[in-house]
Each structure stands twice: as C-alpha cells, then as structure tokens.
Specification:
single chain, mainly alpha, two-stranded antiparallel sheet
Length: 335
C-alpha cells in the first residue's frame, strides 16, 4: 500500500492550532471586558464595554467549537486522556462561559438586579480565563499516562505552575480587553483603558518572565529545546518583547488601533513559542501527533467538509466586524 501524498496529521494539527489561536485572540478581548468590568469608572462605561462586544462575542466562540470538534475527529486519543485529566478545569471554563453568556442577555433588561449580572459577567469571564490558562499550564507540565490511559488524579492539573499560567491568562485577556476598549471607545472609558493597559502590560511581562524561568524545572524536554544552544526559536520571545514595547509606546502616544494590533502580535508570538516548545508532542511527555491521530481515511473525509466550513466562518467573521466597525457611543451603541 502506497504512502499518502500529504501528511494529513500535520495538516489537521495546523488547522486545530489555527482554530485555537483564533479563539484566543477573538474571545480573549471580550473575556477581557468582563475581567475589567469591576474596575470600570462608571456604569455608563460598563454599558460601552458590553456594547463593544455584544454583536460579536457569540461568533467569537465558534472557533472554540471548531477546535474542539477538530481535535475529537483528528486526534481521538487526545480526548481519552485530556478529559479525565482536565474534567474540573474544563467544567470551570464552560461554567464561566455560561455565566458570561447569560449576563449578556439579562444585564440590559434588569433593574434592581443589575449589579448581580455585573458580577456574573465579571466572575464568569475571570473563571473562564483562569481555567483556560490553567489548562495550558497542565499541558506544559504533562500528564501521567500508562498504555494510553490517564492514571493521574482529578486535581493533578492544579499546581503552583498552573495557577501561575492561569493568572497569566487573566492578565493577558485583560490586556486584550483594554486595548480593544482603546480602539472602540472614547472619552472617560478610553482614558480608563489607556491607564489600565500599562498596568496589565507590566503584569503580563512579569508572568511571562516567571513562566519562562519556571518551565525548565517543570519539563526537561522544553528545557533542552530552548537551552541546548542558540536557535531560530529564540526569535519568538524577542518578537514578543518588541510587541510589548510597541504596546507601551503606542499607549504613550495615545494611538487608537496600534495597541490592540501589537497585543495580538504578543499573543501570536508567545503561542508560537509554546508550539515550538512542545512539538511534536500532543500529550506530553510521550504521545506525538502521529501516535494520537485517527485513521487516514477519517481525516480525509472530515477535512473535505472542513474546507467548506472554514472559509464560510472567516467570511462571516470579517463581514460582522466590518458592519460593526467604528466607535461605540455611550447610550447609543455603534455609530
């Protein structure tokens, strides 16, 4: 039997990686609005913050579904290991997303209970963001697997390292949220966003350095890949730091769009650094992409369907953001 012309396993890995970073970038800034919610200067600013993401937040979560469904289809072994290992973390993430989603629907209709929906929106966003960061940390530190079965405990995912990555994700999403708010708001709300962006950038950089120093003690494979000699992957943290500098300088200059674009760059280069650190392991420390992949025929059949879905999602997303471009006016929504 001849070998397949294309390595569908690698293609599927690239598709899922693309779906994950699209979700992080797009849902990250609306989760960031919830993280910033308790610190907003006024109730009017909270209205602006929620209105800035109200037309797009549910579409942003399409990428989470795409990534999750693709992972199940192309790498079923990952599901059999990840879900038992991360049940509680995934549950917290979904519960947070549910609370955040319900708050979108009820906050503007509530009168006496509006403050409760404010806290639901903020609490759901913070919990979901922390859980996502903790799951990433659990992936970095690896899983106890014997004969392709997870044999660790229900709380093995919760360690000092994953708490650090969880807090880092909260700060990172907060930074995405504040720079988005700079882009979409004006007046008092925009000034608040300028102020908080500097503090969040400092928090992100502190966590970035702490994780970089902590990771070699968590995973020997990552330590060897990064510190066995100078290589091209060292460009990734350099580019990430350049993006951080651009965020700071753009905020100093009171730019509208540059801070958000630079923050996306910071996330992208950090994400590439994570992928470079763990490749080709999809279930660290021992299971590679090809070990976890489904049959070639299954991958090909599902890929043909996905080739129709992804362009539709991209076109719909681009059209939505084009329609709801511009600033959000207090009391009026998009203008």
């Amino acid at each position: 039997m001849s070998e397949p012309v294309f390595d569908l396993t690698f293609i599927w890995a690239a598709i899922i990686a693309f779906g994950v970073i699209m979700y992080v970038l797009m849902d990250g800034f609306d989760l960031g609005q919830g993280i910033l919610f308790p610190f907003a200067p006024s109730e009017e600013s909270r209205d602006v913050m929620m209105n800035s993401v109200a037309p797009v937040w549910d579409g942003n979560e399409t990428w989470l579904i795409l990534g999750g469904a693709g992972l199940l289809a192309a790498f079923p072994l990952v599901y059999t290991i990840f879900l038992p290992a991360l049940y509680i973390g995934v549950f917290l993430m979904l519960a947070g997303l549910i609370f955040r989603g319900v708050a979108f629907e009820f906050r503007f209709k509530a009168k006496t209970s509006k403050y409760l929906w404010n806290w639901a929106f903020a609490g759901g966003s913070i919990v979901a963001s922390f859980a996502q960061g903790a799951v990433v940390g659990a992936y970095i530190q690896g899983f106890e697997v014997v004969n392709d079965v997870y044999v660790g405990g229900a709380f093995d995912w919760l360690t000092p390292f994953t708490v650090l990555t969880g807090l880092g994700m909260v700060a990172g999403y907060g930074l995405l949220g504040s720079t988005w708010l700079i882009l979409k708001s004006e007046g008092e709300t925009q000034e608040f966003a300028y102020r908080v962006t500097k503090r969040l950038l400092l928090a992100v950089l502190v966590v970035f350095v702490a994780i970089s120093l902590y990771t070699p003690f968590v995973d020997e494979f990552v330590s060897n890949r990064w510190f066995s000699g100078i290589s091209v992957i060292w460009l990734l943290p350099v580019l990430a730091l350049l993006c951080a500098w651009r965020i700071y300088s753009a905020v100093q200059q009171k730019r509208d769009g540059t801070p958000f674009v630079a923050t996306m760059g910071l996330f992208i280069f950090t994400y590439f650094g994570l992928l470079a650190s763990k490749f080709p392991y999809v279930v660290p420390p021992s299971i590679t992409l090809w070990d976890a992949a489904s049959a070639h025929e299954s991958q090909l059949f599902l890929l043909l369907g996905l080739l129709f879905v992804i362009p539709i999602v991209l076109v719909y997303t681009a059209w939505t953001y084009w329609v709801f471009r511009g600033k959000v006016k207090a009391g009026h929504g998009y203008h």
